[in-house]
Amino acid sequence: MMKNKKILFLILIQIALLIVVISCEKKDKNSINSDSIIEGKTSILVDETLMPIVEDQVTIFETEYKAKLTLLPKSEKESMNDFLTKKSGIIVLSRDLSKEEFTFFKNNRIVPRSTPFAIDAITFIKNKKSNDTLIDLKEVIDYLKGTKNSIKGLVFDNPNSSTVSYLCRLAKIESLPSEGVFSFKTNDEVIKHVSENDGMIGVVGINWLTQPKAAMQKYVNSVKILSVKTADNKYVYPSQENIGSRTYPLARVLYIINCQGYNGLGMGFASFIAGEIGQRIISQSGLAPIREPSRNIRIRNQIENKK
């Protein structure tokens, strides 16, 4: 009898320990993964050249769901460094991961999920006082390689930005030349500088021109977007249609990349911006959506006669 009581006592202790372990595991899991697909809090690294469209998406997403997304805008290079050091598991870029970056996460037992959601464009701007409305992309590339031509100076947002890296790849150079090229910290600073200095050519993401902040409107009104000469000798303006069809030579696909490693807000936000509502927001922003959002057409049986 005594022996049976002792066995029963040991079984109860084991059950109690098992309950404690399970509850601790659940607590640890919840503390690490503090978000679900549509609820909770998380941070998102954002290439700062893409901030306007991402801010628009976050505003609507947060009104639809019980979620708080903190945006961390930095240059492309800084954002990728933070992404690789796991300061956030979500990032928005103007490119997909490289083969090496993909392998890095895969080696860490995380399979990156890349979702294309919009097509952006790098644009060239000049002061409205200038008579120029056109620019030859070949001249820009030659100028970046050190060849002097009609270009007086190029103004970029940040030496580590995606805009700089994109044009450096086109020119097949490692970095910007030391002369004739200037850089600030933001696209807004580039626009302001060009609006106040005739002859300079600014290089900015088009979303900063189509959806400027109220304080920037007067500076945006003082610059003009240039049409770009392509390889087949055609000048193409970065209209929404030309960006969407990739006729404009400096169009680029935007991606949200999720490496959270679980079903969190990264997955939910990616589904949102690539879905119906997100694509409508992009259509209204001046960028081109990855897919055309549906349109609801009401058909009436009778035509109303207006008197």
UniProtKB/TrEMBL annotation:
Any one Pfam family here would be PBP_like_2
InterPro entries, per the entry: PBP_domain, Phosphate_ABC_transporter
Q: Which residues form the PBP domain?
A: 42-275
Task: Tell me the superkingdom of the source.
Answer: Bacteria
Q: Which UniProt keywords apply?
A: Signal
What is the name of this protein?
A: Substrate-binding domain-containing protein
Record the organism: Flavobacterium chungnamense
Its taxonomic path starts at: Bacteria, Pseudomonadati, Bacteroidota, Flavobacteriia, Flavobacteriales
